[in-house]
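Take a record:
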Amino acid sequence: MLDTTFANASQVRQSYPVADVEVSVKAPAPVAAILSQTLSRTGVHQRHSNAATEITIERDHHDHWRIHGNNPGSERLVAVGKPAVEVAGAVVSTMIADATSYSSMRLLRATVISQNDRALALLGDDWDATMLLASHLHARAWNVVSGIYSFVDEGTLRVEPFHKLLFATSGSLWRLPLAYRRAVEASPWYVRDGGELGFYAVDPEVAYGRGSWCSSASLAAAVIIDGRGIQRDVQSAPTSILDGLGKIADRSDIRCGRLAFGDPHFSADAIERWFAQSA
């Protein structure tokens, strides 16, 4: 039986660049191994680090893994016995929260893709929809900037990615582009609550080869994926969808839109038409 308590696991220290912050992580070996898989692309485009922080994982007296860094607000709790991949996911959340408090850039929680050095942020909480839409645009020769997290320079609007590999569920496989089936097959997986499979290290490069990832791009537009439905065109949206990004939300040169996600082919068509008009 798989030991999810990590009772006899050794501690492994790793270091990852997150924007302009160097984050050191000390974690049980099974969790560290998953971080090595999911963050295998993060060191490819490493920036100069202006600060450093450390993430540690400790078991408390209430049978929780306490994951914390230097920023008290970054702490996460995961019940002992949960799969290592869920503990690793909480570690990544803590890494991002801790780095955000030290970084000179703004955190952008979105799936970001780019075309000709122009970045498009896909916002919203429906991560299945944003991942599906990004994969179909990638199939149309767009580049992947980031799957969930990236950072934006307020002055230059350059998007600096955090190259965490993508996540897909078994329920969404039939809607992915065919080339992405190879990337899913190459990804490790686990059984989620409810019995669905979660593939947690889907690499776009396995689908479409070298050059799939983008090292940086200039933020040009943002679309919030607002529910599901049949909508053939992107509707205009206020810049308030960028709230939380400081001065970036006041920029008039970032086009903002809203789209109800439906068939990924139709939604990708709508995005491409709308994005071309903002060039």
